[in-house]
Design a protein that fits this description.
This protein is of the alpha+beta class. It has one domain. 32% of the residues lie in helices and 26% in strands. The two termini are 25 Å apart. The relative contact order is 0.23.
């Protein structure tokens, strides 16, 4: 059965930088639907662990009010098994040490998409990867 709120990689409008990305999803795990959840690396570390924003929301509108910088998204239909794999991958990836080129905020949603069997882009730059994903699915 498809999830009621599919996995959604997000993209913010870049200023002069590379932009920022995160992952917002509602998962259905063990037959129970979890509330919408946002996960992203913050771009800094606390020792060997990345500082992470992980927050649960009651609705998409509540999320948009909290994170208005995200102005683009892509929805994917996923199964409960894909949701469980994506959640595990996103949570595991999000806490690994932040590295600008090798393990940035885009890697969290890439790990989740890969675990769900979805294309996650080829770029290490979050906004470029988002554009690649968009082009791949929105042909």
């Amino acid at each position: 059965m498809p999830s009621p709120w599919p996995s959604v990689p997000l993209r913010s409008t870049p200023g002069q930088g590379l932009g920022c990305s995160g992952r917002f999803s509602t998962f259905k795990v063990s037959g129970k639907t979890r509330p919408p959840q946002y996960i992203s690396k913050d771009g800094t570390n606390n020792g060997d662990v990345a500082n992470v924003t992980e927050q649960t929301f009651n609705s998409v509108a509540e999320f948009k009010a909290a994170f208005p910088r995200y102005n683009r998204s892509i929805r994917f239909q996923t199964s409960a098994a894909q949701d469980a794999a994506a959640l595990k991958a996103a949570t595991g990836s999000s806490v690994t040490k932040y590295r600008f080129l090798k393990n940035n905020c885009g890697h969290t949603y890439s790990a989740a998409l890969n675990a769900a069997g979805k294309y996650s882009g080829a770029s290490i730059r979050p906004n470029t990867a988002y554009k690649q994903i968009y082009k791949h699915y929105m042909k």
